[in-house]
Write a structure and sequence with these properties.
The protein is α+β, with helices and mostly antiparallel strands. Helices cover 46% and strands 20% of the residues.
Length: 149
């Protein structure tokens, strides 16, 4: 296994075991639940949006290491972003996890999310990695729930 792959696994395991921004967000202005019935991941994403940008975002719930790590990394990266910037990040991230690093035009823009580049090799894990994103997108649109079905 390459050193880069080892590093990626280390980041995913660290965020999966000690997720950042985990816990309720009492003053959330946006909220949605997300379910991945294939794996059983169930996340609740809460965001506080002010002046057109995400000021804070947290998540709660249960899930596999990949879904928790993806939610943890995502919540750290979207703070301060406008919804349209989050949507652009999601599109690049989705291309990364479904098609691999060659399909993502701007890996540097993804920051730590690039560690999920190997997910495309395991199609059943794509929904685990993307659940938090689908849930945040639903929350920002005002939808109460979403599913990766």
């Amino acid at each position: 296994m390459s050193e880069l792959t080892d590093l990626y696994q280390e980041v995913i395991l660290d965020h999966g075991k000690r997720p950042r921004n985990f816990g309720p967000l009492p003053d959330a202005t946006h909220h949605a639940e997300g379910l991945n019935p294939l794996c059983g991941d169930h996340l609740d994403v809460q965001a506080r949006v002010a002046d057109g940008a995400i000021r804070e975002v947290h998540f709660t719930g249960t899930g596999c290491a990949i879904s928790r790590a993806s939610a943890s990394v995502m919540t750290g990266l979207v703070k301060g972003k406008r919804p349209e910037e989050v949507e652009a990040m999601f599109q690049v991230f989705h291309a990364l996890v479904t098609e691999g690093p060659g399909a993502a035009p701007d890996l540097e823009a993804l920051g730590k999310l690039a560690v999920f580049g190997g997910v495309h090799e395991f199609p059943t894990r794509v929904k685990c990695a993307s659940l938090a994103w689908h849930t945040l997108r639903a929350a920002l649109k005002g939808d109460a729930a979403t599913s990766t079905e």
